[in-house]
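=== RUN LOG ===
request id: a7f3
mode: sequence -> structure
chains: 1
length: 153
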Amino acid sequence: MTLRTRYEFTLPRGYVDREGAWHHQGVMRLATARDELEPLRDPTISGPDDPRLTVVVLARVVERLGSLELVTTHEIEGLFAADLAYLQDFYGVINFGTPAEIEEFLAGQDDVAPAAPAAVEEPAPVADVPDAGLVPTARPVRSAIEELPAETR
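=== RESULT ===
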């Protein structure tokens, strides 16, 4: 029996690079102790509970993403939230799961084939929209995430 150290995955959404190329299949290797310890020495990581730690660890163990042979924190940070969550689950299963759990997870990803991202259309200019005398009811879009005061949580 040989130890399997690399696993193929398919992201639910897919990574879109700077040139607009879509990458959804990749390879992740098993993590070593160094993969989990070295990022804690990174000055941008404040400790084991720092959310960025996940990004740095995943950048170390994801060996390929589509045609990208070098995956860095930049690519991991550019993933859609669903893909980041998927890779976190994938990491946990292949590194800490039983062989049965790994096989079940891998079989489950075969059932979900990502769809190509739809082209984004630019909204029509406001001057081209006919005015029907309606009062806008939509809330304004927030430009950033707002922190709620502690007393309202």
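=== NOTES ===
Residues 6-110 form one domain.
The radius of gyration is 20 Å.
=== END ===
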